[in-house]
C-alpha cells in the first residue's frame, strides 16, 4: 500500500497531505524528504491542538511555526483551520497566531476557521487581519475576539460566531465591514459581554440567519433584527420581553425553537380558562412583534414549546396570507392551545406537517383536536352543530397532511379520525410509522388508518 501511494503523482500526494490531520503529524518529529517537498502543493491546512495537551506547552506553536516556514514557497493557501489552547499572559502567542493568519491571507486565503478553548485568557486579532479582499468564509469560536477600529472584507459571504469573546462595538464593526455577507451563524452559550451578538443583527445583504442562544438570563434583552434581504431564519433561544423585527418582507422560511425560563408555568396555566384575556400572570415575555415580523413567510416550523408560547406570550396572531406549509412538533409536555386560531390565520395553507400527534391535553385545543378534557366538555357554550359548522378544520384548505413518528395509540388514532373527517380538501396523507414499531404492529396500524372514514373523496393515504 505504501508503494502504491508513493507512486502517485505529486499533485495527488499534495491533496492527500492536505487531508492528513495536523494534530497527528505534530506527533511526528520529521517528515520524509519526499513528503516535505510536497508541502508546497498544499492548499488546505488544519492545525488541531489536542485537549489533552499540557497547558502552557509551546510544542504545538513551534510545530505550526516550522510548518509555515516549510510553506514559504507555497503559491496559494485556500483554507486555514486552527484550534488550540490559549496560554496565560503570552502576547507572543497572539502575535504568532496573527503572523500565521497573515501569511495565509497573503496567499489568497478564502476560508478561515479559528477556535481557542475557553480558559479566560482571550485571543485578540489585530486590525490588519480584517482588510482581506479574498476571504469568503470566517469562523470565530471560543476565546477569539477582535480589537479593531475598521473592518473591510468585501468578499466575505459567511460568518460563524460560536460563543466568542466578541463585544458589541467590534461585532457591529464586523457586520458593517462585510457588504456582501449572506450567511450568519451565531451561537451564544456564555455571556462574555453585553449585549450578546444574537441580540442585534443588521445587514442589508444577509440572506440566511441561524441563531442559537442558550442563556437563561436574557429575559429583559431587546432582540433587534433588520435584514431586508433575509430569506431564511432559524431562531432558537429563551423568549424575551422585547422583539424588534423590521424589514423582513423577503423572508420565506422561519424555524422557531422558543423556550420559557420557568417551565413550571405550563403546569400552572395549561388548564386555565383564558384565551382572550391577555398574557397569564407571571409571564413577562412577549413574542407578539416577533410573530408579526415573520408574517410574510411561506414556510413555518415550530417546536413543541414554540407552539405553546404562541398561545402564552403572543397578544395577537397576524394573518399569514402567504403561508403554504406549516410544520409543528408535538410532545406530551406542551399543548395545542393556539392551533385553532393559527389554522384560521393561514387562509392559503396547503401542507400541514406534524411530527408526533401526542400532545398535552388542555381545554384550549378547541376543534383542532378531539381530546378536550372530560370535565370541560359540559362547559362549552356552542352546540355540537354549531361546532361542526365553525370548526377550524372545516374551513381549512389543506391538501397535504404529513404525519411522522405515528405510534397508533388510541389518542393518535382519534386525532387522525378527526383530521380525515374534517379536512374536506385533503388529497394526500403521508404517514411515517414510529421506527420502534415492529412489522406486525405496522400492518395493524396501517389497517386501522385505512379503515377510517374520509370527508374528502380525493384523499389518498400513503405510508412512508
Please give a structural write-up.
This protein has 464 residues and is of the alpha/beta class. The protein has a domain at 302-371 and 392-463. The chain has 15 helices and 20 strands. Strands 1-2-3-5-7-8-10-12-14-15-16-17-18-19-20 form a 15-stranded parallel β-sheet. Strands 9-11-13 form a 3-stranded parallel β-sheet. Strands 4-6 form a two-stranded parallel sheet. Helix 5 runs parallel beside helix 6 (91-106). The longest helix is centred in the first third of the chain and has 16 residues, at 91-106. The model is unreliable at 22-30, 271-278 and 375-389 (pLDDT under 50).
Number of helices: 15
Strand order of the largest sheet: 1-2-3-5-7-8-10-12-14-15-16-17-18-19-20
How would a textbook summarize the main sheet? 15 strands, parallel
Structural class given helices, strands, pairing? alpha/beta
Bulk shape: elongated
Low-confidence stretches: 22-30, 271-278, 375-389
| Residue share in helix | 25-40%
Strand elements, count: 20
Q: For the record, give the distance between the C-alpha atoms at the N and C termini, rounded to a whole number.
A: 44 Å
Q: Rg from C-alpha positions?
A: 28 Å
Instruction: Look at the structure and give the mean pLDDT.
Output: 82
Strand content: 15-25%
Oligomeric description of these chains: single chain
Organism: Brassica napus (Rape)
Protein name: (rape) hypothetical protein
Domain F-box: 2-39
